[in-house]
Amino acid sequence: MLQAAAVDGEQLEQMLARRVVGEPLEQVLGWAEFSGQRIVVAPGVFVPRRRTELLVERAAQLLGADARPVVVDLCCGTGAIGVAIAQRLEVELHAADVDPDAVACARQNVTMGEVHEGNLYDALPVGLRGRVDLLAVNAPYVPTGEIRLMPPEARLHEHHVALDGGSDGLDLHRRVASGAPEWLRPGGTLLIETSQAQVEGTAAACADAGLRPTTLSRDESTLVEAVAPSVSSRT
Ligand SMILES: C[S@@+](CC[C@H](N)C(=O)[O-])C[C@H]1O[C@@H](n2cnc3c(N)ncnc32)[C@H](O)[C@@H]1O
Questions:
Q1: What is the pLDDT of residues 116-129, one digit of tens each?
Q2: How far is the CA of 137 from the centre of ligand 1 (A)?
Q3: 44 near 157, Cβ under 8 Å?
Q4: 23-34 mean pLDDT
Q5: Distance 178 CA to ligand 1 centre (A)
Q6: CA 59–ligand 1 middle distance (angstroms)
Q7: CA distance 215 to 167
Q8: Which residues line ligand 1 (CB under 6 A)?
Q9: Closest residue (by CA) to atom 16 of ligand 1?
């Protein structure tokens, strides 16, 4: 793949040198394949993982019947999740991330929606409050103490803000869940990727926020799907 990507021998040498010191192949190439799409990946930005395609598939199932639903790809990184959803369905897409490098990268990928920069929900336009049909989230969930056990591709070449989920890995999940009811429409869904080891904690964070969580697993992928109360159950 490097040979095919390099314009000449000198560039190939440079690319090989980057790969040899552990830079992810996708960052060296400048793109990753995700859900059938070529996604631009800049140095330091989280490389979209194949396991996250389950989140995209489930999102498409959930939204299939809705007319131009509002989708927020929160903690978007490259924007891969939002791009893949928008490729399958007509949606009003918003993507947001706190890392300026990720935001710059997402702006290259998300051509059919808006990309916002900021800390979780602070990044979103206030007009989205109570209107979001689907919050599609792959936030960091690696416990801080386990980052050192990750392969060098992640540990040394993806920004720690993309990996670090705090002491039990669930800091971001608790913050995402607690803010979700304010942004979801009644009956809207938070779909969040987690791990098998952490799924109970992620689901508990959703239940604590007043959402109704269920879990979904396939191969290496685990999701929590958490539904906001409908109007009738709120009143
Ligand atoms: C595990 S990566 C996932 C990226 C993308 N969703 C994907 O699946 O490829 C987590 C992302 O969350 C972002 N992030 C971490 N803390 C954040 C925060 N407080 N607010 C917004 N984004 C945050 C990181 O910059 C990173 O891009």
A1: 999 999 999 999 99
A2: 8
A3: yes
A4: 97
A5: 17
A6: 18
A7: 23
A8: 46, 48, 52, 75-78, 80-81, 97-99, 102, 119-120, 138-140, 161-162, 172
A9: 161
161: which 2 tokens?
Answer: 């803000």
pTM over 0.90: yes
Token readout for 4 is: 């095919």
User: Of 45, 85, 98, which is best to mutate to test ligand 1, by the most ligand atoms within 8 angstroms of its C-beta?
Assistant: 98
Reduce the secondary structure of 143-203 to three states and give it as a string.
CHHHHHHCCHHHHCCECHHHCECCCCCCHHHHHHHHHHHHHEEEEEEEEEEECCCCHHHHH
SS3 92: strand
Ligand 1 nearest-atom number relative to CA 141: 1
Q: Which residues partner with 227 through β-bridges? A: 189, 212
Neighbours of 160 (CB within 10 A): 13
pLDDT band at 103 (very low <50, low <70, confident <90, very high): very high
pLDDT tens, 39-76?
999 999 999 999 999 999 999 999 987 789 999 999 99
CA distance 130 to 151: 40
